[in-house]
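Table S2 (continued). Query chain:
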Amino acid sequence: MTPDPKASRAIARLMCDTTRDTLWSSYRDRLRQTRPHADLQCRTGSGRATYHRYDHRHQIHLITYGVRMVMAKQTPETAASWLSTREIRSRGYFGGEISVLNLLAHTCTHEFAHLLQQHAGKRYHGSVHNHHFYQLLDQLNDVGLADRTRRHLADLARHHGLFLDDRTMALPCQQQQAGQWQKGDQVRFGEGRAAREGQVIKVNRRTCTVEGTGASRGLRFRVPFVMLEAADA
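Corresponding output:
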């Protein structure tokens, strides 16, 4: 069943509230000791893009949670390829269990770790998910803030009558995903102005290498399996 966009937007707003209520409130005074005007704004975006940005001039951190990201993390087939899934499994966050609630709560702590990384001056061009970032993300989990974030998000969702499944999700194996594609397949991916078409030239472990066709001729892309669909679908 396709997740409801309206409910997913409401969940994204609750992720904004949770980030401010648990994570930002725990660090705000500390961060303002070195940057007195530091502040956080959270917003929802209409696409999959979920990210942290920093306005140096006004000392404002901006975190965006994409509605299509929220939708994608609610079904096993689309949740499998996200970095959030790999981090929870490989680093043992939330006991290594993948669920809708765990994925969305972890997304909050992941983006907030980027905020702390930016504040510390440890975010570099070409080196975003670096050793310092994972030290901060581990710390948020070790001190219990990730668990607080998870509980707060769950409580807000219940209060607003929204369902966040906390049952362990059965993810498709990478072999299953890879088996859907083969060299020569005509595919498309992306949305709106970012939509692209191309031909699969290589099937990798988690992605396909796609050679662009049409307006994307001459370009090559590494596209996660979950973002691909047949061009004639």
